[in-house]
């Protein structure tokens, strides 16, 4: 029994993941936590389960140290260690760092985040499934989005989140795997991103997008949070 229990716990741990590297122009950063703030799950790969926790912001373990340069309108990716091993949506948020703030220590609290991308459920499958047919990001080793071309140039935190729904049959069961990259966006435009939301605050534990029904089987799904700002 002890061996069986140990095996099950090991299996669960292996199923968790984190996002420690950026992918810029198709090139993955050589080392973890280069331009991504190290997260509290850097050793355990565990997720955030309380959407009212301050960990929903960046889940960071320490301040940032590096900044990546990204061109507005280009594709930016996050490498997963080892893969997105739970089904659910993957979303991307951006927050512009004030000119007077240090990007390495800026907390990004309050209504400063806008949704810049989302990889959600493929609708039209009736019912929806809990595999790759419905969830395009499921089992991928990296996820990506296009930085809005009209976003103003400047320094940003870019937050990736993967909402794992495999144990989300009841409130509080969703697991959120997230991290924040530090980037400088160049070649931007004069758009006004929005709506702006806060983490924590953007999600409620009772949001339908944080709950998954195996029975009755779900026939539709909408990810939590605001609409994507495309610029």
Automatic annotation (TrEMBL):
List GO terms (cellular component aspect): extracellular region
Catalytic activity entry: [(1->4)-beta-D-glucosyl]n+m + reduced acceptor + O2 = 4-dehydro-beta-D-glucosyl-[(1->4)-beta-D-glucosyl]n-1 + [(1->4)-beta-D-glucosyl]m + acceptor + H2O
Query: What is the residue range of the signal peptide feature?
Result: 1-15
Pfam families per record: AA9 (PF03443)
- Cofactor requirement: Cu(2+)
Q: Where in the cell is it found?
A: Secreted
Q: Indicate yes or no for the key word Signal.
A: yes
Its top-level enzyme class, in one word, is: oxidoreductase
Residue stretches making up the Auxiliary Activity family 9 catalytic domain: 16-216
Keyword Translocase attributed: no
Enzyme Commission code: 1.14.99.56
Give the UniProt keywords, A-Z.
Answer: Carbohydrate metabolism, Cellulose degradation, Copper, Disulfide bond, Hydrolase, Metal-binding, Monooxygenase, Oxidoreductase, Polysaccharide degradation, Secreted, Signal
Among the record's GO biological process terms, what is one? cellulose catabolic process
Q: Tell me the GO molecular function terms.
A: hydrolase activity; metal ion binding; monooxygenase activity
The protein's matches in Gene3D superfamilies, at most eight in alphabetical order, are given as: 2.70.50.70
- Superkingdom per UniProt: Eukaryota
The record's comment on protein family reads: Belongs to the polysaccharide monooxygenase AA9 family.
Record PANTHER family? ENDO-BETA-1,4-GLUCANASE D, PUTATIVE (AFU_ORTHOLOGUE AFUA_1G12560)-RELATED
Report what the protein is called.
lytic cellulose monooxygenase (C4-dehydrogenating)
> Native species of this protein?
Massarina eburnea CBS 473.64
């Amino acid at each position: 029994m002890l061996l069986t229990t140990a095996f099950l716990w090991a299996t669960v741990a292996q199923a968790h993941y984190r996002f420690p590297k950026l992918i810029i122009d198709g090139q993955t950063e050589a080392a973890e936590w280069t331009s991504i703030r190290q997260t509290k799950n850097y050793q355990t790969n565990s997720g955030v389960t309380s959407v009212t926790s301050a960990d929903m912001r960046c889940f960071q373990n320490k301040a940032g140290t590096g900044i990546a340069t990204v061109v507005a309108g280009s594709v930016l990716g996050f490498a997963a260690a080892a893969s997105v091993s739970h089904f659910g949506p993957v979303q991307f948020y951006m927050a512009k760092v004030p000119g007077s703030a240090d990007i390495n220590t800026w907390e990004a609290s309050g209504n400063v985040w806008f949704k810049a991308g989302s990889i959600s459920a493929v609708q039209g499958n009736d019912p929806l499934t809990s595999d790759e047919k419905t969830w395009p990001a499921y089992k991928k080793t990296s996820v990506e989005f296009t930085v809005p071309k009209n976003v103003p140039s400047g320094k940003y935190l870019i937050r990736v989140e993967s909402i794992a729904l495999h144990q989300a049959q009841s409130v509080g069961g969703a697991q959120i795997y997230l991290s924040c990259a530090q980037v400088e966006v160049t070649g931007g435009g004069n758009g006004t991103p929005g709506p702006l939301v806060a983490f924590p605050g953007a999600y409620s534990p009772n949001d339908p997008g944080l709950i998954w029904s195996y029975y009755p089987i779900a026939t539709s799904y909408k990810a939590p949070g605001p609409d994507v700002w495309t610029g």
